[in-house]
User: Fold Bifunctional NAD(P)H-hydrate repair enzyme from Streptomyces apricus.
Amino acid sequence: MRTAYSVEMVRAAERELMARLPDGVLMQRAAAGLAAACADVLGRVYGRRVVLLVGSGDNGADALYAGARLARRGAGVTAVLLAPDRTHPEALAALRRAGGRTVPGADAEEPLRRADLVVDGIVGIGGTGGLRPDAAALVDVIGETRAAVVAVDLPSGVEADTGEVHGSAVRADLTVTFGAHKPGLLVDPAREYAGSVRLVDIGLAFPGEAELEALQHADVARLLPVPAAESDKYRRGVVGIAAGSSRYPGAAVLAVAGALRGGAGAVRYVGPAGDAVLARFPETLVSTGTPEQAGRVQAWVVGPGAGDDADAVAAVLGTDVPVLVDADGLRLADRDAVRARRAPTLLTPHAGEAAALLGVAREEVEGARLRAVRELAERYAATVLLKGSTTLVASPGDGPVRVNPTGTGWLATAGSGDVLSGLAGSLLAAGLDALDAGSVGAYLHGLAGRRAADGAPVGAHDVAEAVREAWRDVTD
Ligand SMILES: NC(=O)C1=CN([C@@H]2O[C@H](COP(=O)(O)OP(=O)(O)OC[C@H]3O[C@@H](n4cnc5c(N)ncnc54)[C@H](O)[C@@H]3O)[C@@H](O)[C@H]2O)[C@@H](O)CC1
Ligand SMILES: [K+]
Assistant:
């Protein structure tokens, strides 16, 4: 499991460790890791031009110590001091001893334009409220140069705890982060600014819960339902799909396609698109009545392409089995009915649907995804999977939010969400809890999207078909 910790927890872990170590040890560990990463980016260090952007805190000090190491290996290092009278004195002295030179912020443009590498030590976890204008002006210049950019701990200007970006921020090719990932490195929009991320172990230990968790192959493999020798289709779980309408029969077909690949032993379909479903998937158990009249299921999926069938949504919410609500179902679901449920509920909105549920603009959700998903989980007393560039899954309470690491832009295609709801619903029916079903579903769905796309556009049915390949990938 990959984890990310809040600034508060990182600071507590640092205090605890610093109390047991001689002064400066942690910073030297950080600087050594940073210098090694910079050397990797440069390929050859000797003779290269490196510019350090140095703010007033320890983030700038890391950059200075790493710069000193690079200067000793023959790089030409220039430190741009954004707050000359508040620069970390020992770190500055170390750079000067190693032969580095310094310039004030006002003279930064010329060295920046000639740089091979820019090291962003403007602010790290101590940064608040976006960049100041002088730093923001430098960010614009970096954007125009050909230099590689390595961010120290975080790209300056992004919010470490939330992944929000207010105003301009450094766009890095690589971020070298210390001790633990910070939430902003895993959640968009900040994640996009970080480039690839390298974690340097400086010895921090975390007794408490992470803010974010990202499943890896091994975690997913452990959670996937595997039939036992004595399993029959009912023990493996039956998932009910109440989706589609005469206007949108395709949504039913795609949700069933996803459900068939999610590990349930059987898929039951209820709704007006039974013929379309059967034509494509004859193994589906189709009934034409209401969800209450269908046979027993272990979990329901309701909503994809459902049009205005509020009765089906209400009926499904009234059951005592786990329920996944997607698409039209989110609009039709009564909030009190969701809150009153005793069995697990998983809501799967995209940003637009989440915005409607929260009564805010879509941009607000996209700019503050972590806050939005936590807020929805609280308001609805349900697990919420917020789809998008970084899919997040949150349950009510303070536990870690899951962030999906496998997403791909190719999944932004019509019907792809229907496949995900079938897939995650099937995992619910197979016995996973809502947080696991949502995050494992998103993981497989993302991998399947990558597999199916392989560099070219895909349709949602391609994604559904590639889920089996993704499953094999994970369990290999
Ligand atoms: N504490 C430790 O033991 C370690 C800290 N490390 C480094 O220390 C960093 C944290 O250092 P600090 O707590 O000194 O904080 P930072 O260096 O992140 O930033 C704080 C300083 O920046 C200024 N500042 C805040 N917001 C700003 C903004 N928007 N624009 C411009 N200036 C702004 C503040 O006035 C303050 O002086 C970490 O990110 C990491 O790079 C590492 O050396 C590892 C060890
Ligand atoms: K930084």
Q: What stands out?
A: The chain has a mean pLDDT of 96. Residues 434-453 form the longest helix (20 residues). The radius of gyration is 25 Å.
